[in-house]
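Possible regression after last week's pipeline update?

I re-ran a chain I had predicted before the update to compare outputs. Posting the input and the new output here so someone can diff against the archived version. Not blocking, just want to make sure nothing changed silently.
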Amino acid sequence: MKTRAIIVEGKMKSCVGYIDLPSPSATDIVTRTLLSGVSMGTETWILQDNLHKVTFPLVPGYQNIAVVEGVGAKVKGLKRGDRVFAGYSRISKKCGVTPKWGAHASRCVLDYRDAVKVPDTAKEQEVCLSIMPATTLHGINIAGGIKKGETVLVIGQGLIGQMSAQHAKKAGARVMTVDLIPKRIKLSGKYSAHIALNGRHVDLKKRIAKELGITTKSLFDLPAQGLDVVIDTTGRTGMVNTCFDVIRTGGRIIMQAFYPDPDKVDFRWAHCKEAKILFATGYEPSDVKKAITDISKKKLKIAPLITHVVSYRQLPEIYGQMVIEPEKFLGIVVDWRK
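New output (post-update):
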């Protein structure tokens, strides 16, 4: 079965092309894509050949809302016409294109157990970005959760950062965010955080100390005062030392990003403060279901963060713009019906 897909042919080269899907097995479903969601960080890293284990040509994408068109004999709980969320598609080896998840395609083949049925009340544009809150929820969960009354700083206010902040706020924490892009800061202050800061215009350590009612010196007097939780979503190694500076003794640091830059990190303050550092990647199926439910019930606000809805034909051009002018983009939805 041939289908259209976004194909990344090599570094900074992408196009709309055709791929071959494998014959479905008894536990597979075949879906027709309505919308797919772009993960800006991951997909620009792929485009720049900055992500590990990338083999070109490939089909990217791990967020997809689709209608079930075919069901295998052993499929349970799904039928033709159901709307589902899918995070990947298999691709036939004979076409010479590999899936880097492969969800940016007009049709997908996957195991039914990897699909999540979408509630009738859910809006497709919102839930097609469900991996963003699912991934951030996973990171928070492996760090032991966030408790009511804790103080949290989220560094970076792309979609991952916005969702991290909303999860923390929903848990009852006092949430601060910091970014360099004015539009993201404004959205963060309105929808995601109690306090949204512009890193270009503020001394972060002084501002955090003021918020906590302590002196800047107290951040480094042992046992150190500071934030309970810091979540970095920038993927910039240089921000790691900032996390160490503002965390309290025994606090938790969640590295909620991919760090391709091999810069050195100074671990001295992390050591002195006995900080708990966790690297988060991926998600559990339960995280996706929870994210879809929370979006559907308006417990997470993702609709105001969608800046672009484009036809799949436009995505190769959008990819190039994302690399050159990332500040213009936040939530990007790809429409496969246009």
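Follow-up from reviewer: compared with the archived run. The first helix runs from residue 40 to 47. Marking as no regression found.
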